[in-house]
Write a sequence for this structure.
């Protein structure tokens, strides 16, 4: 049951990343063509660069959760491994995961408040609510929260694509 729910959420995340990146590439291509390869009568969209910049926030937050799942984010295990024994490392890993979960909860809460606050404000050159772009923060943090929670519960990510067992059992995605 958990795997089915996770697969649905993962599919939604991947579709979001692919659609957003596709939209950004198409819009960027159109902007470049209109700017450099057309007559003076055709100009790039006034809102194009702004929308491209803001949609990149969606890609960053959604893809960050994939990095958590695969354990590919930067970690500073070298010094911790030198200072702590495996048991201490396991405790530190749990503390770090709890801290990350609390941080994601705070970001989801305040991000949602920001979305609600900005729902009536629009981009400068087009009537698109800023809240659409602000929503990337609570939604992306929700995905990151799920990934960290699974790591905390199982000790590793049960659905990761990369090998989930590090050489040292106390070392993992911190």
């Amino acid at each position: 049951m958990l795997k089915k729910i996770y697969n649905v959420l993962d599919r939604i995340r991947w579709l979001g990343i692919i659609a957003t990146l596709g939209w950004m590439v198409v819009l960027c291509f159109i902007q470049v063509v209109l700017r450099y390869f057309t007559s003076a009568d055709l100009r790039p969209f006034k809102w194009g660069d702004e929308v491209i910049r803001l949609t990149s926030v969606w890609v960053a937050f959604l893809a960050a959760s994939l990095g958590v799942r695969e354990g590919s984010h930067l970690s500073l295990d070298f010094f911790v491994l030198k200072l702590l024994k495996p048991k201490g490392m396991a405790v530190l890993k749990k503390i770090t995961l709890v801290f990350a979960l609390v941080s994601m909860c705070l970001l989801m809460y305040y991000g949602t408040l920001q979305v609600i606050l900005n729902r009536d404000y629009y981009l400068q050159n087009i009537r698109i609510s800023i809240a659409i772009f602000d929503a990337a923060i609570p939604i992306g943090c929700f995905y990151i929260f799920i990934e960290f929670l699974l790591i905390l519960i199982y000790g590793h990510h049960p659905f990761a694509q990369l090998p989930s067992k590090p050489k040292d059992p106390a070392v993992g995605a911190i």
User: Anything to note?
Assistant: The CA atoms of residues 44 and 91 lie 54 Å apart.
